[in-house]
């Protein structure tokens, strides 16, 4: 009887004693995840930011390309340019352009690859359309768009040769002390030789008995105009 009691006591003692952490059994799935997770964190490529500024410029102007990415990073250009190729994960590079160029940033790693591109247009009297969402002011009974054109949209060297109303209704276009009324599709040289950079204001008066909602609907909530450029004076 005493022997039986002693055996039961030893069994109970073993059952209640904590296991040595060095000998804990780890499931195969847990072991796989613990090994793979750090590799995934290190092995995933990403592109946090990529930008070319300005996006519209004159031949001979300089564009600055900036980026921030994770992984093995490479910067390419089409047409090809010098000083492209493998890059640090974060940086910037200036390029002097003679023609329209597409920059492509690639980041690759063990498990993934990411790419991003940015187009820079070299203008040569090439018209470009600008616009944005319009607002409607009830007291003034008109649609309005205020559009600042700055870097990275246009280069300081770009000058205006003409502007065109791209809306299906008349507009008043203003920049600084210059303003002109344009019928639908009409072109004007009122801003000739002025810098393209600056704040442009587009307004369009509501028709008789036309509500703000109807006016915005008629222009699909947007007011636009087109600028033809030249380079410098």
For the secondary structure, the number of strands is 17
CATH architecture of the largest domain: Sandwich
Average pLDDT works out at 85
> Helix/strand/pairing class, anyone?
alpha+beta
Largest sheet: 5 strands, mixed
The portion of residues assigned to helices is 10-25%
Per the CATH scheme, the topology name of the largest domain is: Jelly Rolls
CATH class of the largest domain: Mainly Beta
Q: Which band does the percent of strand residues land in?
A: over 45%
Q: What is the count of DSSP helices, taking H or I runs of 4+ residues?
A: 3
Major sheet strand order: 2-8-7-4-5
> What is the 3D form?
flat
Order of helices and strands: HHEEEEEEEEEEEEEEEEHE
In short:
With 233 residues, this protein is of the alpha+beta class. It is built from 3 helices and 17 strands.
Provide a descriptive summary of the structure in words.
The strands form four sheets. Strands 2-8-7-4-5 form a five-stranded mixed sheet, with no helix packed on it. The chain has a five-stranded antiparallel sheet with strand order 10-11-16-13-14. A four-stranded antiparallel sheet has the order 9-17-12-15, with no helix packed on it. The protein has helices at 2-16, 28-43, 212-218, and strands at residues 46-53, 56-58, 62-70, 72-78, 85-87, 90-96, 101-108, 113-123, 128-133, 135-137, 142-149, 158-165, 171-175, 178-182, 187-188, 198-205, 222-231. It has 233 residues and is of the alpha+beta class. The chain contains three helices and 17 strands. The chain is flat. It folds into two domains: 46-123, Immunoglobulin-like; 128-231, Sandwich (Jelly Rolls). The mean pLDDT is 85.
């Amino acid at each position: 009887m005493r022997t039986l009691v002693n055996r039961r006591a030893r069994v109970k003692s073993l059952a209640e004693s904590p296991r040595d952490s060095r000998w804990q059994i780890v499931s195969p799935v847990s072991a796989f995840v613990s090994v793979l997770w750090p590799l995934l964190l290190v092995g995933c490529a990403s592109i946090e930011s990529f930008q070319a500024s300005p996006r519209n410029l004159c031949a001979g102007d300089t564009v600055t390309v900036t980026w921030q990415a994770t992984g093995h990073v490479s910067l390419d250009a089409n047409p090809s340019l010098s000083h492209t190729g493998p890059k640090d994960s974060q940086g910037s590079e200036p390029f002097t352009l003679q023609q329209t160029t597409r920059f492509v940033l690639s980041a690759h790693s063990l498990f993934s690859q990411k790419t991003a591109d940015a187009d820079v247009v070299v203008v040569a009297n090439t018209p470009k359309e600008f616009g944005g969402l319009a607002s409607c002011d009830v007291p003034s009974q008109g649609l309005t768009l205020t559009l600042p054109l700055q870097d990275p949209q246009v280069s300081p060297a770009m000058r205006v040769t003409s502007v065109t109303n791209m809306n299906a209704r008349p507009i008043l276009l203003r920049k600084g002390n210059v303003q002109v009324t344009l019928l639908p599709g009409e072109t004007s040289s009122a801003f000739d030789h002025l810098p393209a950079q600056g704040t442009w204001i587009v307004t369009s008066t509501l028709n008789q008995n036309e509500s703000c909602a109807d006016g915005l609907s008629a222009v699909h909530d947007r007011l636009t105009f087109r600028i033809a450029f030249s380079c410098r004076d």
